[in-house]
Structure formats: structure tokens, C-alpha cells
Amino acid sequence: MQATEITRRDPAERKRATLERLGAERDIWLSTAHPDHGPHQVPLWFLWDGQAVWMCTGAKSATARNVREEPRVRLALPDTFDVVLVQGEAECYPVRDVPQAAADAFAGKFGWDPRTAEAAPYLYLRVTPRTVRAWRGEPELRGRVIMREGVWLT
Fold it and tell me: Are 46 and 55 a contacting pair, CB within 8 Å?
């Protein structure tokens, strides 16, 4: 493996790159926990609407059960070099209650609409970031928090 030289980005560049990735990527890891069952982590498709992350899971899944018991979650984009971690609280939306704009955008991005799926019912999850951390390698560990208490630091 060849080492890559890392150029430290300023906070504004980290924010710009993070927002770009949130808008462009397809998959995100969702980590939940349940007081009795412990931690649970799953990869899900996601949509960034400019304010929050929208995902969809089975209404009776372990993920849905955990979020109902403990809404605090962590999200991670699937790149261990260009790390983006998001913490927030998940809100649950049964398909009948999801805002139409969010559901339409989700269906448009993935070509699949959970509102019309014939399988078991689905649940939309909305996570508004409270804390965002972003870094590329050791040179960016200092200053990796780019959002705190729901406010961008740049």
C-alpha cells in the first residue's frame, strides 16, 4: 500500500466536501442501540434533503425497534479515509405520515418507492444532524468537528 500525502483542509472546505458527499452518495451506515438488545448497525440507502438524512427500513425491523426505544443514532458514510460521522436523533414516519416531498425525492433517487411496496410495511427515518465530524487522515483529526449542537462551525 502506498502512502498518500494529505493536505489539511480548512473547516469551510470540509463542510463543502461533506455536503457534496451527503448529496451524492447512496449508502450510509446507521448505528442504533437498544437498552436490552445492545448495538445494531446496518447499511441503508439514504437521501440528504439539505437539512436532514432520510432512510427507510422495515417497520418491524430491529432498527425500527431500536429507534423507537432510543432515538439517538450515529450515521457514517462508508469511506475509512474520508470520514464523515453524523450524530442526531431519528424521527419515525410511517409511510402514511411521511412528507410527500421527502418520499418523492427518495423514490426519485432510488427508483423504488416504499409507499407502494407490497412487502411488509416500511418506516421512514429522518435524522437531523446535531454533530458532524469530518476528517481525512491524521492531519485532520484536530478540528474534525464541523457541526455542533446543530450549527455549522464555518
Answer: yes
Residues sharing a CB contact under 8 Å with residue 52, sequence separation 6 or more, in sequence order: 88, 126, 127, 128, 129
Give the Å distances, CA to CA, from 97 to 93, 94, 102, 122: 6, 5, 11, 11
Q: Fill in the DSSP letter of residue 137.
A: S
> Per the confidence metrics, is the pTM higher than 0.85?
yes
Give 10-residue mean pLDDT values along the chain (154 residues). 73 96 98 93 98 97 96 96 97 96 98 89 97 94 95 93
Cβ neighbours, 10 Å, residue 67 = 25
Q: 3-state class of 79 per DSSP? A: coil
